[in-house]
Amino acid sequence: MRAIFLTLTVATPWLLACGSDQATAPSPETVLEAVSPAAGASGVAPSTPVMTQFSAPMASGMEQYVDLHRGDIGGPVVPMTCTWSSDRTSLTCSHDEPLQPGTDYTIHIGAGMMDANGHPAETESHGMGMGGVAVTASMMGGMHAGQPTGMMGQGWQDGHGHMGVSFTFHTT
Prior knowledge:
CATH architecture: Sandwich
Structural class: mainly beta
Radius of gyration: 18 Å
Number of helices: 1
Distance between the termini: 62 Å
Strand order of the largest sheet: 6-7-4-3-9
Order of helices and strands: EEEEEEEEEHEEEE
Largest sheet: 5 strands, mixed
Strand content: 25-35%
């Protein structure tokens, strides 16, 4: 039997079996495309919002799995108000008070983010490609959003025990 492989822009292979007139294809993967402020950014104005961009619409409630920590990933959570774009691909989070000047902040995007079709969004490898760091339990300092590590609930951990990706930046 001979098979033909086609590659999509998201590197998802399609298999078309010989003798069949229909291709069987998995749904395209939703990926994290951008984060702002970017990992390693310095001189970020304290009023700058946190923004994320995904390749497809995201499910309702996914904004609860985006946190901003003062310092590293184990630091205190900064209260934010988040709003999705009308197409649900861009999330803008404004912190309730200006950030402290001359301070490191870390954006955490949970590994269990789901798109509008209920499929997991790929955040970790794409996020690491943007300078992000894969989040592990040992990085959490025992707490996350007021909950003990291991008690983060669905959304912070994916089915493989990964806890997402983080991006650290520094304010002016």
